[in-house]
Amino acid sequence: GRTFEHRNRMLANLVCSLIKHKRITTTLAKARAARSVAEKMVTLGKGGTLHDRRLANARLFQDEDACRILFKEIAPTFQTRSGGYTRIIHLDQRQGDAAHRAILEWVELPAGAPAAETKPAEETKSEAK
Asked: How confident is the model at residue 118 (pLDDT cuts 50, 70, 90)?
């Protein structure tokens, strides 16, 4: 029920968030749609040419931060991989409208990415002593 421009902007924003934060939680339908865009962006990033950089920049609507992270951090991580850069993890249904939720994340987290599991605050306080 979205216009072409609205859908493209939404997918670009989802992919930019995925690039910056390494993991996003959204509805299953949006995750499936954003997955193909993200995979194409990584393929462009692996090419690394000026033309690829301009195409990625145009598709992500001039988000310089996301393009820099894509070409400098994410694409080198997947250099030896021929596809399947993202995964979708199914979650429960949303309380308000019963929409199926999912997590969209990179298969191999780039170096320096936040870990999936963090320690509880109590353990970190006791370790600091």
From this structure: very low
